[in-house]
Structures are given as C-alpha cells and as structure tokens.
Amino acid sequence: MNTPAKILVIIPCYNEEATIVDTVERLRATCPEVDFLVINDCSTDRSAELLERHHYPHLDLPVNLGIGGGVQCGYRYARANGYDVAVQMDGDGQHDPAYLSAVVEPVLAGQYDMCIGSRFITRQGFQTSFMRRVGIRFLSWLIHLLCGHRVQDVTSGFRATNARLTAYFADHYASDYPEPEAILSATLAGFRVGEAPVIMQERQGGVSSIRSFKSAYYMIKVSLSLIIDRLAIRKTKR
Predict the structure, then answer these.
(1) What stretches in the chain show pLDDT beneath 50?
(2) C-alpha–C-alpha distance, residues 66 and 22, integer Å
(3) Helices 215-232 & 178-188, crossing angle to 10 degrees?
C-alpha cells in the first residue's frame, strides 16, 4: 500500500500471547509503511512480556477497560498524533493485513468515513458459526431499522476511520461490545459508513470475548444498547 497518508493500526490485546507476535510481524512484513500501537488491556498471560521483549509500540492500561475502552484509547492516541486514518485490527490472527488497503482506500478516497472489512460480501474464508451468523443478521436488521442504513458484517472489528470520525470516536465510543454500536452512532451522527470485502481466518489462539454461554446475554445487551443509542442520539447530516 503506497500512500503518503499517515496511518495508525490499533491492535487491542487481551491475553493474546499465542498470536500477538505473529499478528504484529505479519503486519510489519505486509504493510511496513504504517504505524501500529498495541493496546494491552491488563492481560494476565505473557502478552505484556512479549510486547516488551520485541519492543513493540504499546500501551499498558492500568485497569481492564474491555475492547471498547481499549480501542478508544487507540483513537485518542491517533487524534493526538495527527493520523489521517486509524485502523482497528484484532490481535488474534483473524484479520489478514493483506486486506488493510481494502478497508483504508475507500476512506482515503473520501468514499466513506468508516470502512468495515466484511466477510459476507464475497462469502469467502472463515464465515463464523451458524448461530453467530444468525445473530449478526439480526443485529444488521436492527441497525437498519433504527437508522435506515444496511451493514452486513456489523460485528467485524476490522475497520478504518478518517480523522474526523477518529476524533468523534475518541470522545464517543461504547465500552463493552462496541462494533455494532459504533456503526449506529456514526451513522446517526451523519458519518458515511460502508463495507469492503475481505477474507478472514478463524481465531488462531486465545478465547473470544463472546463465548457461547454469553451469546444470549450479548444479543440482549447489544440490542438494548442500540435502541437506547437511537433514542439518545439526534440524527444529523454532515
């Protein structure tokens, strides 16, 4: 990806000792021109030790903030340091940095304020489990109902934002499971949200934050949060 734009890749990390080094090294090999920052969210395994040993740029959070709080720290860092584009990419090996340009280029071209890497456009690669796909389709339908905008892969954590939306997320970002809520809040705030096809892999290690016994709780909590967000956020145009 040859571009003069200043790009930061935000990599949230919680107990990713099995994958974080490989994730970072693949990113450095594939996209050496971008900067990256690992957000270590109080990992209890050897993640912090590995980040120090390899001298990776990282933040060690003093308390566990969850995925939303960790990523928001990355957005604040990107805003403070004047990055043109901020990219969220998971530390578990699911997101292939070969597709970084696919999510960044529509943002740089001014097509979208946020571009989400979607596994459901071409339906190639890892498609997650049947029950999770059902849940994702439901959340996609609910977001469309609440704001009139359709996004297929609403839980994808592979996404790029321009400087304006990065600044917005630096101050307004959900703390628990923020991906669906970020789509709704950005759309209601007048930002343009779109998708680009990517191929994802199955998680290479660690444990998902959405485990099976929490799936029902996750769906109820996110659905209620989306409805509350719709009531609280005035829809605007930009």
Answers:
(1) 206, 209-213
(2) 22
(3) 20
